[in-house]
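User: Please go through the entry that follows and flag anything odd:
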Amino acid sequence: MKKVLIVIDMQNDFIDGVLGTQEAVTIVPNVKRKIEEYRKAGNTVIFTRDTHDTNYLNTQEGRNLPVEHCIRGTNGWAISSELDTTDSLIIDKPSFGSVSLMSHITENFKDAEFEVVGLCTDICVISNAIMLKAFLPEAKVTVDASCCAGVTPQSHKNALEAMKMCQINIINE
């Protein structure tokens, strides 16, 4: 069966930038290894990139999280240089979950198994994992906890528990 790794928002602003955490820094080598494993096995790797414009603070998200981050074209918007994006689709997403990602997946990978890793467990990882289950309810969706970090360690754990309740497999807790 075809396997697809979805790497969510492994961007500088979420790792060691304005919204970075030590937990996010810590998972980078794990995510790098996971990407290498998928590529070596001939599987697909897709990246998402949180993408905002300079008017971010005037958006609903910006009013609720008034920290400019992942502004298109900035260093904070870039995916970590430690992660190889070569030959991977990168989908820019304006919000937590990505309808564009789901459209691409349902058109090209209906019968695949999915693994989701990245940042932040409690916002974008959970949003996209649950969207996968909604768009493809019979798909096997797995989240590798050792390749994810949340806004806080507690919110990371809460998100993992919520995903378990939605029949998403959680590994490496």
